[in-house]
Amino acid sequence: MADYKALAQDMFDSMKGGVDVDTMVDRFMAEDFVEYEAIPGMDNTRDTPRQLFKMMLAAFPDFSATVHELLQDGDKVVARVTFSGTHQGEFMGIPASGNHIEWSVIDIMQFRGDKA
Prior knowledge:
Layout: H1 4-14, H2 21-28, H3 47-59, E1 64-73, E2 76-86, E3 100-110
Antiparallel strand pairs: 1-2, 2-3
C-alpha cells in the first residue's frame, strides 16, 4: 500500500508563503480533483484550490500549514491541520487587519497514484 500520509505531509509542507501555487496544485491534485468544501464564489474543480491559495497567499504572505495528525485508511487520508498567517491583504472582502490568524481544519483526501 502506498504511503499516502507521506504524500499528504509533503503537500501541506509545500503550502507556505512564496510557493508557486500552480506548481503545487499540478503536483498534488489530479485533473479531476473535486473540492467538496463550499467556498463562496468558487466552483468545485481543481481550479478551486488554485484560486483559494492564490488569494490566501496574497492576504497572508507568511501563510503556513502545521500538520497535527494524519490517519490513513487505504487510499484515504484524514488530516488535522492548523493554517496560520498574518493578515496583510484583503481576503474575501475583509480588509487587512495586521493580526496573526490561525484556523484549524480537518481534510479528508482520497488518492489515486500520487495525487489527491
